[in-house]
Amino acid sequence: MATGLEKTNSKNPRIHFDIYAILEGSQELYFGHEVQVNVNLVETVKLESKEGQSLEKCYISPTKRRGVERRCLIWAPVKNDILLGDQRNCGIPNTCAELECPICRVYGGLVPGKKTLIGRVTHGGGVGVQDILPQEKQRAMHPAKLVNKNEETPIPFKREYNQPGIFYPVSNHCLSVTDSEFSAVAYAFLDSLPRIGSGNPKGIAIAESQTMPLLVVDRYLVPKGKRPIISPSETNPEVAISEFIRLSELDKATDHCIQSKHFERWIGDAALEKLQDYACDFVDEILEK
Ligand SMILES: [Zn+2]
């Protein structure tokens, strides 16, 4: 097989899935990026808006989110056994790249010089909505340095933080996976949210408008409808929310669901329930089997 994937059957068809969400920082967040002289910096992106305005925005890079998701799967508890990563002998960066591994078969794996398993889940978005730059905060000396270098004068360090309340529109896309394979992605997406960020504090939530969580899940063979992706030019959180709801085509939905030929969409609470159902399947089929 050119793709390295096994044949599947009519009971386990391969389909595409997308998750779209607006995430909200519940408190200040630090994502290790680079260190300048005693200042730990976070990652920002620079862009020019549609109106020609220069902007610099906070950013949750999709690769960092992907890393946290993979870690959640590695650390998932297997019933009466060791953690999933230990059971599969699959970690970071030493992935097992086995087709039977519930992590590698969707997130991909690499054994250098031996085998490569191409990942079928990709991550997008992450550019903050509000035009708010990270703030620097004074932090105490790192405990390790206090112990090891107690003869030197301690040098406190500063750390930048993404400020709370920033919205981050994000998306996950799965290419030709079975429902069972998608269940790992659903579990990882939900389980990673409280664990996003380096050090402490951590955590990000699915933002809510007055009526619903800002979340959309698509399962399809034909990409239909509009994709709820927010322009990085947008700086107004209210506009971002109303755009997300408009693009989700909630007005065409019955009970927050859209069903048409080769395309299904769940919006808001229905999308959250759908993801939670898939995450339960992952626990039943993989962790508790
Ligand atoms: Zn693996």
List the helices and strands and how they pair.
Elements: E1 15-25, E2 34-36, E3 39-41, E4 44-48, E5 54-58, H1 62-74, H2 84-88, H3 104-107, E6 109-111, E7 115-117, E8 121-125, E9 135-139, H4 143-148, E10 157-161, E11 167-177, H5 179-192, E12 204-206, E13 215-220, H6 237-247, E14 257-260, E15 263-267, H7 269-287
Parallel strand pairs: 3-10
Antiparallel strand pairs: 1-11, 1-12, 1-13, 2-3, 4-5, 6-7, 8-11, 9-10, 13-15, 14-15
Bound molecules: zinc ion.
Q: List the domain count as a whole number.
A: 1
**Sheet/helix structural class:** alpha+beta
N-to-C order of helices and strands: EEEEEHHHEEEEHEEHEEHEEH
How far is the first residue's CA from the last residue's CA?
A: 29 Å
Averaging pLDDT over every residue, what do you get? 91
